[in-house]
């Protein structure tokens, strides 16, 4: 799990990323990013019921993405807010954590967030 300082928690912050942030889609993953002046990267992860009806499945996807971000925090240099949205479709592939991590990493590289792995 990510520390509190690395999580988007307030509704107004999440709405700001939705309305003002730039988006990149890689497979079934959409990342909206809003650049901030200083501070650390804060992220939110959204997996709706349209992706999986089972809460267990949705939470597993959240945990895989959260762990990927936690491990890669030392290599992240940009500050800002990012929302990682898992889109409906390709449900079977979402269980492949390697594919899910590669999709997130590819989208983050578009914003030059993850420098090395």
3D architecture notes:
This protein has 117 residues and is α+β, with helices and mostly antiparallel strands. The chain has a single domain (4-110), classed as 2-Layer Sandwich (Ribosomal Protein S5, domain 2), CATH 3.30.230.10. Helix content is 39%, strand content 22%. The chain is built from four helices and four strands, in the order H-E-E-E-H-E-H-H. The protein has helices at 11-20, 55-72, 91-94, 97-110, and strands at residues 22-26, 29-35, 41-47, 80-86. The chain has a four-stranded mixed sheet, with helices on both faces. Helix 2 crosses helix 4 (97-110). The longest helix is centred in the middle third of the chain and has 18 residues, at 55-72. The chain is globular, with a radius of gyration of 13 Å. The two termini are 19 Å apart.
Q: What would the keywords be for this entry?
A:
globular; Ribosomal Protein S5, domain 2; 39% helix; 4 strands; alpha+beta; 117 residues; 4-stranded mixed sheet
